[in-house]
TrEMBL record:
Pfam families: NHL (PF01436), Thioredoxin_8 (PF13905)
Thioredoxin domain boundaries: 1-142
Domain of life per record: Bacteria
Gene3D superfamilies associated with the record: Glutaredoxin, TolB, C-terminal domain
Name of the protein this chain belongs to: Thioredoxin domain-containing protein
Family matches, as InterPro entries: 6-blade_b-propeller_TolB-like (IPR011042), NHL2_NHL_rpt_dom (IPR045302), NHL_repeat (IPR001258), Thioredoxin-like_fold (IPR012336), Thioredoxin-like_sf (IPR036249), Thioredoxin_domain (IPR013766)
């Protein structure tokens, strides 16, 4: 089919020009449907970078920003995200999700490929498609170069002017023993030690380059003194985009790799693993709890544990299903946990994609604030009615209450477990991402998009009865009763399904609320499933996790690949809805 025209509210990284498909004729165009809150979308940005470098004169990547949260509709916030994450290609602002619907996207992220003559030739959901996408691009280049329809040359990307500040999109911070602050200077790919007032640079760790020892680092943890002495480093660093943990010795500045292969996690491994042999997935924050390091493994919606002295690592809580479900760990559901703090016997968690504040105590997870993947807002009052919007940071206070960096509301919120109430401590901040409570009781906020540390005035509490929001992502209509779920998967060029170690595919289905599904929940090896939808439940979310194993064909030492996607599909039950729900894990034009 002819690719639908690219229309949006505006464009970034084009020097002010609105692009059309006619402007891109002669190039292979890769559309990347993303939203800047989504960790899987950030993974795809990193997967696309090598392809952009390799095929730069024949391929144009276009980011299509189709927002989930209300804050992501703000064009200023979008421009900041494009800089924060080093997006070096044009981005169209699909504020009203027009292009999302035109290209039939159903998940963040989704990739669509347009050939040099303007035809849509492929669509694929999720991450992990770099190898298959590379093969497809090679085929398209060969075909269209031979036909004379490929036009090599520079693309439409125009970089924005550089801006110089002390910090650039800082992520997390901790207080050091001497009172200075250590900050993960994420967009500068380094750690910055600054004075106690947060305004003077003392020293910097790391090269400052994306391919240096740090790549968009986030969480920091000052280890207990006896542990630090034993392992030879003082600070543990969540090296987020490198999918690794690194140790920093403050006296010498030495940086040591302590966990992670550098490859993103693709499949589960039972039991403890050697830390340096384990694949991690966007570790975002760290805390010392129950005698070990707990890692907010944002990329796979889990918490992991790490034993620095034993050099082992493993899963602490979560199943990789992206949703909200409490209960005994590890069989709980989270959605991009991004902030951790310990208060007494509780581990507090900022669970960003469910806009939730949660805690673990005595091996059981609870939710204090939060209602699900698609409900958010800025509402104070009783905790069960209060709403947050994509919080990234949390800090337990000595009185037992908890402060939350309510990132997309630009606010600091407070949850009081005694009264079970939520209030607003401060607002008007620019994407606060972390909170530091110093030994003297000062509260310092990492104001990420303002590129600074901000000290909160004591005693300020506001009450906000703001708007409630639901994601305006168009729901899929489904019929009550029998519904066929089909996950469509076609191996990439040069690959075949890999059955040498058993079934090559896996499908896991659940629902929120659980009553939405009368039958069909569970895990099977078939990518098609007969479901029964409850006509008494008018709407909900189908959680679908699908994966397919492939390997290269006609290769002596064939490489193996795992394609995996986690969908949270909002559905509305209607009598005239379709009785089939197709989801594309990877779809390729056979021509």
């Amino acid at each position: 089919m002819r690719a639908p025209e690219l229309r949006g509210r505006g464009w970034l990284n084009t020097g002010g020009k609105d692009l059309t498909l006619a402007d891109l004729r002669g190039k292979v165009v890769v559309l990347d449907f993303w939203t800047f809150c989504c960790i899987n979308c950030l993974h795809v940005l990193d997967e696309l970078r090598p392809l952009e470098e390799r095929f730069g004169d024949a391929v144009v990547v276009i980011g299509v920003h189709s927002p989930k949260f209300e804050h992501e509709r703000d064009p200023v916030a979008l421009a900041a995200a494009v800089e924060r994450y080093g997006v070096h290609h044009p981005v169209v602002d699909d504020r009203d999700m027009h292009l999302w619907q035109q290209y039939a996207a159903k998940a963040w992220p989704t990739l669509a490929v347009i050939d040099p003559t303007g035809y849509l030739v492929a669509s694929m959901a999720g991450e992990g498609h770099a190898e298959g996408l590379s093969r497809l691009i090679e085929e398209l280049i060969t075909k269209h170069e031979a036909a004379g329809t490929l036009h090599r040359g520079t693309g439409p990307y125009v970089p924005p002017p550089a801006v110089d500040t002390l910090l650039r999109f800082p992520g997390k911070a901790i207080e050091l023993p001497d009172g200075n602050l250590l900050v993960s200077d994420s967009a500068r790919h380094s750690l910055a030690e600054v004075s106690a007032d947060g305004e003077t640079l003392v020293r910097r760790f790391g090269s400052g380059e994306r391919h240096g020892p740090f790549n968009e680092p986030q969480g920091l943890l000052l280890l207990p003194a006896e542990v630090a002495t034993s392992v030879g480093y003082d600070v543990l660093v969540a090296d987020t985009v490198n999918h690794q943990l690194r140790g920093l010795a403050l006296a010498t500045g030495e940086i040591t790799l302590v966990a992670g292969t550098g490859k993103p996690w693709r499949s589960a491994v039972d039991g403890p693993q050697d830390a340096l042999s384990a694949d991690l997935s966007s570790p975002w924050d760290l805390a010392w709890f129950d005698g070990k390091v707990i890692i907010a493994m944002a990329g796979i919606h889990e918490l992991w544990w790490f034993e620095p002295q034993a050099k082992t690592i493993g899963v602490y809580a979560g199943t990789t299903v992206e949703s909200l479900r409490d209960g005994p760990i590890p069989d709980v559901w989270m959605a991009q946990p991004s902030g951790l703090s310990v208060g007494g016997d509780r581990l507090w968690i900022a669970d960003s994609e469910t806009s939730a504040l949660r805690w673990i105590e005595a091996g059981v997870m609870h939710t204090a604030v939060g209602q699900g993947l698609f409900d958010f807002g800025h509402v104070d009052g009783p905790a069960k009615e209060a709403l947050l919007q994509h919080p990234l940071g949390v800090a337990a206070l000595p009185d037992g209450s908890v402060l939350v960096a309510d990132t997309y509301n630009g606010a600091i919120r407070r949850f009081d477990p005694v009264t079970d109430e939520v209030s607003t401590v401060d607002s008007g901040l620019n994407e606060p991402s972390d909170i530091v409570v110093t030994r003297t009781g000062d509260v310092i906020v990492v104001e990420s998009s303002a590129h600074r540390l901000t000290r909160l005035a004591p005693g300020v509490v506001k009450t906000v009865t703001g708007e409630r929001h639901r994601t305006e992502r168009p729901p899929s209509a489904v019929a009550p009763g029998a519904l066929t779920l089909d996950v469509i998967f076609t191996p990439a060029p040069g690959q075949k399904l890999d059955t040498q170690f058993g079934p090559s595919t896996r499908l896991e289905v659940s629902a929120s609320p659980p009553e939405l599904l009368l039958d069909g929940a569970g895990t099977t090896t078939d990518l098609s499933r007969a479901l029964v939808i409850n006509r008494a439940v008018p709407k909900g979310v189908l959680q679908v996790v699908a994966q397919a194993a492939t390997c290269d064909v006609d290769e002596e030492f064939a490489a193996c690949h795992l394609t995996r996607q986690d969908w949270g599909v909002p559905v509305v039950v209607t009598p005239d809805g379709p009785s089939r729900l197709p989801l594309v894990l990877r779809g390729l034009d056979e021509d």
